[in-house]
Amino acid sequence: MASASPTPAEYVTHHLQHLTYAGDSSFISASAWHVDTLIISTLLGLIFLTVFRIVAVRATAGVPGKLQNFVEMIIEFVDNSVKSSFHGSRAFVAPLALTIFVWVFLWNSMDLIPVDLVPKLWALAYGAAGHDAHHAYIRIVPSADMSATFALSISVFILIFVYSFKGKGAGGFAKEFLFHPFGPYLLPANVLLNTVEYLARPMSLALRLFGNLYAGELIFILIALLPWWAQVIPGLGWMIFHILVVTLQAFIFMTLTIVYLSMAYEHH
Q1: Is the pTM of this model over 0.85?
Q2: Dihedral of CA 219/156/100/122: which sign?
């Protein structure tokens, strides 16, 4: 921490600091690389891939085990969501939607870990390595980091253009962008509206996820400022409510991704 007995402001500020890496070039700022976000996101992605790979290898046509049954339920749920909204080939979109749903859900679930647990463990390890434990910063909720949510939403944004060209062709995309919705005589208005619409999609995806999880993380931190005997009821209540937020935000991100790709792929 910033001091032996941190003030509430110092406590909150410490918990909202990222573990960063400046790199060797002065061109890269100290806040450019959020190492904690990169590491946690990678580990959660590997956990997701490993578990689903194990289930796929061990899958049986007989009575499934609990893990296989759970994974199959998730896959069926995502596939039905894609099937109801996207009318092209699901060979890529369905795995994409599954990856987004599970990965974002795992991102969000990190917010349910007690706020002091990982920072204290990291401070011990940081101090044992010969560094000042008071400056051991770490955040473990990738979706509370705007750089992570925007990175994911920009990936979806790029895919929107890929599927627009795939479904409509270059000519069809140009006609829709230039002439929709007011026709050829109001081309500047069409371009302005379509530009705003396209830019709003990744921004809404990123900011909605970031805002909800950042607020959830901040509330957990504020609850942790209370005496330990006063944390139980508000902490438990917020955790139960936040479980719904964790799931809902993963579902919304997945659903909007499917809808955006469907709109891009279809002719209008």
Answers
A1: yes
A2: negative
